[in-house]
Amino acid sequence: MVGKDNLKTEDLNLCFEKLMMPGGSGFGKGGVKMECGAITEWKDIPMELLLQIASLVDDRTVIVASGVCRGWRDAICLGLTHLSLSWCNKNMNNLVLSLAPKFTNIQSLILRQDKPQLEDKAVETIANCCHDLQVLDLSKSFKLSDRSLYALAPRCRKLTKLNISGCSAFSDDALAFLARFCRKLKVLNLCGCVKAASDSALQAIGRYCSQLQSLNLGWCENVSDVGVTSLAYGCPDLRTVDLCGCVLITDDSVIALANRCHHLRSLGLYYCQNITDIAMYSLAHSRVKNKTANSLWESMKGMNDEDGLRTLNISQCTALTPPAVQAVCDSFPSLHTCSGRHSLIMSGCLNLMSVHCTCAVQAHRMATTFSHQAH
Q1: pLDDT-based confidence at 23, cuts 50/70/90?
Q2: Integer angstrom CA distances of residue 296 from 240, 291, 300, 304
């Protein structure tokens, strides 16, 4: 069922025997033997022990184990909550169709693919059977259509993390429909979803998914300031936003994020060539405003350098000037340009070579002082 390289039942028996064997004694040839005869065969292993053993082996072995006997199947199907099938290079679709009706308590399901295998029927089966699903990765599922999102939306309302990056066939109507039902979403990866990530879909996300913390819109070329501004106003807890390759956005998007998303930690603006110094000064000024807004709290706990932006990618943003970027760097001590700690990424911007973080400046001063003392 899981490929010719997988463990056979007799190999699995040996594997579990080694896992359970204390010093190699006390086990008979035909199965498990424990003190007082409490367990005489593999099928008699208590569910708790079986699940503990299953947690020590890979997902392929767990699937094989679920087919050893009815008791094992029932125990594993009941207790298994996390499963990854990314190792499956072929027949993933059939595997999902077979497993989803059994593993109904799955909370995290990783179906990332190198080759597109999944079809809508498999996702529909997941939606019909796995109502406790919280984490779902369907990245690179090029064969999926809107049918999949329409199936997931009303049945998997507990979703908190969804990765559909590279699913280029999804439409914005289907994504907006999903947002109406999956209101607990905190992490959403739409990288490369050019058709799905439109301004209207982002408006729906901003309207319904107020708990969103991380959003990847990389290379979604139809996204404009209208969509990003809606997100900033509707999802104030956004912490990670990737707008790399969103060529239509302007300073207005960055200003909205700076003013509304006070917990913003990472911002990707790679190749957003309409971004100017105005956006940078808005980010720098947001630090001051956030300090003022939280002055009482900050006075109690002290200012932490880890607050505010920790990563900023402005590569290929060729309109930016050193003073504006330096202002951002000065406002957020966690942004680094020094060797080994690059979190302010400026590749392709030769005019920004003079921008340096605080520790880089201090290192230069120390080196200069040491040189003078040596002479």
Answers
A1: very low
A2: 26, 9, 7, 14
